[in-house]
Known about the structure:
Elements: E1 5-9, H1 14-25, E2 29-34, E3 43-46, H2 53-68, E4 73-78, H3 92-117, E5 118-127, H4 140-156, E6 168-174, E7 177-178, H5 180-185, E8 195-196, H6 197-208, E9 218-225, E10 228-233
Parallel strand pairs: 1-2, 1-4, 2-3, 4-5, 5-6, 6-9, 7-8
Antiparallel strand pairs: 9-10
Helix pairs in contact: 1-6, 2-3, 3-4
Keywords: NADP, Oxidoreductase, Tetrahydrobiopterin biosynthesis
Enzyme class: oxidoreductase
Catalytic activity: 5,6,7,8-tetrahydropteridine + NADP(+) = 6,7-dihydropteridine + NADPH + H(+); 5,6,7,8-tetrahydropteridine + NAD(+) = 6,7-dihydropteridine + NADH + H(+)
Amino acid sequence: MASGRIVVYGGCGALGAACINHFKQANCWVASVDLNPNDKADVNITVPKDASWLQQEEHVVKELGTALQGQKVNAIICVAGGWAGGNAAKDLSKQADLMWRQSIWSSTIAATLAAKYLSPGGLIALTGAKAALEGTPGMIGYGMAKAAVHQLTKSLGSKDSGLPENSLAVAILPVTLDTEMNRKWMPEADFSTWTPLSFVAQLFDKWIKGEERPANGSLVALVTKNNVTDLIIQ
């Protein structure tokens, strides 16, 4: 008997895979939503890459509904996304479009899933970025997309958002996550300031259990120094 039902949107990325591993070890039923399957998940919903925003939403909503067979989930965790640099002088619309697809499409579809399938008191967690609390001139498209995730989170955490009763909408705002790819591209960085993926997965687990929950609509920055991570709630 599974101890909970979790949906991870972006289950093939580094953080998504870490979340799936964590919740499978906790004996949860886990569905992964991504462009590719995660073989650790109980159910994989493969998003058609070239489909429109609406087509992707219709596909994911239908597939998850079929998998759940009338049951509800305890959490929808959206850790899909990506990064692209660039300012206004080069490829701004191209970079912004890519960031919108990776962060906003996935976050909005996750919100729709929450409205339909989240249990009362459940968790929807999105992924913003601490950098997007201010101007991001070297990565304008990225900053725009993450700022929109922050706005979506605040809206979902407000009255009449369409989410189930007593649910919690929150966004994590990482600085740098300690992933294999980040270590590859930034080998000279100070890893003691990077947030471990296991910390984030455990944080989601606490919130699902109702422990140490921030206020609804909170933006929770993850600030790591000397291998210790503090939560700075906006």
